């Protein structure tokens, strides 16, 4: 399975490409914005595609040609303004969905926010609400396609070392989860067709990633 990782140079993305390259039968194509970001992925033996997510759909579709799945891990980050939230977390996500369709890729995994339901938008702080709204509409756009999607809603992301153990479910209390373990969940999700058409929350827990994903 060849996987296009959008947002590969992000913290989840780097872990994800590393795990994919280590997995027998899987290989990654890392979509990056700058040429100077390529060396990390080339050392792993991964392909790279130089594309700015703020460009048109066509370059993203070209990057997706010949892959079996697309994973959207890109995000504007906590220190950017509402404009970048719209351009990356909403427009970038929707363009990637449309690019996958254009390239004939059916499998799509979206890394979203912990809770993107309407109630979560209304309850979010003024500064956080635009991000939740962007993720909400990107998720809804994906669910309205015929793509074989899975939407993953991580808890509070940390850079702690992963434990390989998580808790997966619906309506969980928000708790911390290492980015490394979210990357493991993505790999397991790609390996498990039973996750198609589903969305779930992920926090730190005491169940192995493989067993937790199987329980979705």
Automatic annotation (TrEMBL):
Gene3D superfamilies: NAD(P)-binding Rossmann-like Domain. Transmembrane segments: none annotated. SUPFAM superfamilies: NAD(P)-binding Rossmann-fold domains. It comes from the Bacteria. Pfam families: NAD_binding_10. Residues 7-192 form the NAD(P)-binding domain. InterPro entries: NAD(P)-bd_dom (IPR016040), NAD(P)-bd_dom_sf (IPR036291). This is NAD(P)H-binding. It comes from Alteribacillus iranensis. The lineage of its organism: Bacteria, Bacillati, Bacillota, Bacilli, Bacillales.
């Amino acid at each position: 399975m060849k996987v296009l990782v959008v947002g590969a140079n992000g913290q989840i993305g780097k872990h994800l490409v590393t795990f994919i390259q280590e997995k027998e039968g899987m290989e990654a194509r890392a979509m990056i914005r700058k040429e100077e970001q390529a060396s990390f992925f080339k050392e792993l033996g991964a392909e790279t595609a130089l594309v700015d997510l703020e460009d048109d759909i066509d370059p993203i579709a070209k990057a997706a040609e010949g892959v079996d799945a697309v994973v959207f891990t890109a995000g504007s980050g906590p220190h950017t303004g509402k404009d970048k939230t719209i351009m990356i977390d909403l427009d970038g996500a929707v363009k990637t969905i449309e690019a996958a369709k254009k390239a004939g890729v059916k499998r799509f995994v979206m890394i979203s926010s912990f809770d993107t339901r309407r109630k979560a938008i209304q309850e979010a702080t003024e500064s956080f609400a635009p991000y939740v709204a962007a993720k909400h509409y990107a998720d809804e756009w994906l669910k309205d396609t015929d793509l074989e999607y899975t939407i993953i809603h991580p808890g509070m992301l940390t850079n702690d070392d992963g434990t390989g153990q998580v808790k997966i479910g619906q309506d969980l209390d928000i708790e911390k989860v290492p980015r490394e373990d979210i990357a493991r969940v993505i790999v397991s999700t790609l390996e498990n067709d039973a996750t198609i058409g589903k969305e779930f929350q992920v926090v730190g827990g005491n169940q192995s990633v493989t067993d937790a994903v199987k329980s979705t």
